[in-house]
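@channel sequence for tomorrow's demo:
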Amino acid sequence: SSWIISAFSTASRTAMEEEEGHKKMKIIASLVAFFILKWMKKRRYCTDLKRLDGKTVVITGGNSGIGKESAVALAARGARVVVACRDPDKAEEAVREIKVRSRSLNVLHMELDLANLRSVRGFCKNFLQREKRLDILINNAAMPGVLDWTDDSFSMCFGVNHLGHFLLTNLLLPRLKECAPSRVVTLTCSTYKYQKLNFQDLNYNLLPFFTYCRSKLANVYFSQEVARVTEGKGVTSYAVHPGLVQSGWTCHYSVLFRMLMQVIMWMFFVPCEVGAQTVIYCAVSQEAAKHNGGYFVDCRPAALRPFARDAAVAKKLWEVSERLVKEA
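structure tokens (generated this afternoon):
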């Protein structure tokens, strides 16, 4: 019987040691996962403290997400910030928050709906009448991959993400040139690499993700072409990939999808304040000014896929876009 008791005690002790070992492995695995996620979300901050007193900034979609965080940072540097978005109630609420956080009263809202080219023209007319300066234009607003149409019958992604900003920038370019040196910062996404433009079907609207990718590629080409057409005129242009950001883009999807994405975003995406750093960097940094027409990620220039650097495609997209906005 003593042998049985001894064997039982040994087995129990071995089981307890194995359990302790499993617990330690779980703790180690959790710590490793934590530090890997922390490393994946590590980003540079814009350390350029350049003041923007006397400068005027327009930010599309400045009422939320990266746009709002950019507005706070630039208003805190002394800029006059115009938040351009379509919802006046949300805009006024955002303006109040931006004023408090930036400790600046020089923030205002002007109505702009990029899904309606008439609204874009109205915004530009109103802005040019009211404001004497435009030093920085930040084309931030964007639609995620949704299968919908603008008021002018363009696919929502292509119409808002590209054509709306194309027309806006073109109508404001004379003022940007008058206020040179000035900058145009256009937000894009690294997903541009998964599609190529088809000029026979620019209004592609079948698979939501591919529709979004094409619009973001159009942003890259557009930014390069802005740099080309304004060369020597004091206007510089930058395309920015802000990274994977915890913004409100999921509001366009189902509740189940939003719940799933909240978990994924918490694990892998960075806060909007962090995502805005490269936008701020391109808006103020002298280092960025050395890379006119460049593509920026994490506060530094980054390489584009060869097909995204095709000047002929960029020029053709510009010419086709001119025709499309005139016809609309």
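heads up for whoever presents: Residues 139 and 165 are 6 Å apart (CA to CA).
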